[in-house]
Amino acid sequence: MTDALVDLPDLRVEPRWRRLIGRLLADRSAVLGGAILLLLLVCAVAAPLIAPYDPLAIAPMARLRPPSPQHWFGTDEVGRDLFSRIVYGTRYFLLICAVAASISASIGTLLGLLAGAGSALVDGVIMRLIDVLLAFPYILMVLVVVAILGPSLWTGMAAVGIAGIPGYARLIRSAVLGVKREDYVDGARVLGASETEILFGTVLPNVLSPLIVYLSYATPLAALLASALSFAGLGAQPPIPEWGAMLVNARTYLFSAWWAVTAPGAALFVAIFGLNVLGNGLRDVLDPQG
Amino acid sequence: MKPPPVLAVEGLSVRYPVRGGLFGGVTGHVAAVDGVDLAIARGEALGLVGESGCGKSTLGRTAVALQRPTSGRVMLRGQDLFALGPRDLKHQRRHAQLVFQNPKTCFDPRRTVGGSVRMALDTQDLLDPGDREPAVADIFARVGLRPEHRSRYPHELSGGQLQRIGIARALILRPELLVCDEPVSALDVSVQAQVLNLMKELQAEFRLALLFISHNLAVVEYVADRVAVMYYGRIVELASRAALFAGPRHPYTRALLAAVPSMDPARRDEAAPHLGEPPDPARLPSGCRFRSRCHIAFARCAADDPALAEANPGHAVACWAAVPDGPSVPASA
Asked: Total domain count for chain A?
């Protein structure tokens, strides 16, 4: 049968993830977004080394100082160093992103998988539930959850996470509906794979690309909403250096001490922008036939 | 005593509801498979031919338990596939494997092809885990690929290579029944012959009961020992390859054979008989379902539905012209 062998060129095949990394590095927006995310991560991990002051230390004598070599971003209304607070704030920002995204992505994906692969009854029940969740405006739903659990950093994150579930569920369901008709699903079934094995071993890996792309879009939105909650007094409580919460008191001094609003506002802007740009890059790399 | 056939299909029907109208109600049924009996013994290759849409793929899918029949039984090694619990069905699946029509879509794009073949062993829990990878390498070599091909992803390989791997994935489980659903129709003609040769070789080597589905008579003639001709859900003629190709009895089979282009210059000017438009599968004609396209149909064909009956020993036909005293199929509700 050697005549039948159509030879392949003998090049070494790179593993899939290596190729993906290569393509990400070639994508300008992915690199910019990745750099910003890396900066946030470094700040969060090494906050005590980077921040020159204790983020919670009050200094009544040094209140509302403008930016200077001593206080790069100035100080707030009780004299805390804004730069230190921003640096520590990355921890809360990333925590919110991680917790909210984990809640919505895990529950949403599970519901979407079950709805897409389950019987018509299962699908119907789950999707009507999702429709009910979607019928409420996002912010209203968050307020309801906070009202039930009481305002705190954790309930704020949970609320934002829960509010994000429907989006993931719908996305995954539609992706599953497409994938489960594929020949290779029958291929696994003929080998004797159980429906559960097929769902998690074959269907789930094949819906990961849209999931990752959606994750990168939905997470910055969730983080922004969580900051808005803190700003409204329903999320992180003072004196936690969460950026949204920092804006609350600072807004009183908008005209006399512009830096007190600018610092957390700019930090939020840069962080959200970075995640969004990273999402764009990921979509470009993952979407066209990963 | 003769051993039981590897695959025995008994009175098999698969009906699909036809939905239509304002509220999407069920307005009728299409019988993709309509009362088929068929048996394949160990080491035997049965070719199943028919036009597209005649139900041959549906029949093949029921044989590997991918499609549940509306009525009838599929007996694999003496056990009714659709009466088994999930655990027993899983074990039976090892013995009935499928080679897909389109090799480009039947592999998980997220897995290496070696991983897909290995998954067969993992799923069925065959061999010690340490012996599985060498077994995959062996079967790759057996189907004419190099062991290094295992680390490739499906989109990196050609259709012919993928179909070889499709065969490898099925055969690594050492099944007794192999269903091939148009295994070469998606391949280039130059590659078709190679894959067909490989299948024939492996069929003999593993003594497979082979259900070979194709619309291509030339391919079936090459591979099959016996040939079944299917027309809108029914087997209308079933005979050994030699008998069928030398002396087809059903007018449909004759028309199919006449439609094959001939290399014989003497026959070049013969006009192939024209079959006319295929019927609407939801509204098949009364009596014999072929009569609307049959040039020898007579009065009885509209009244009685002919069942498959032996015209000569080993040569069964469902046609009143061929077997005037044969049984008829009782009209079903």
From this structure: 1
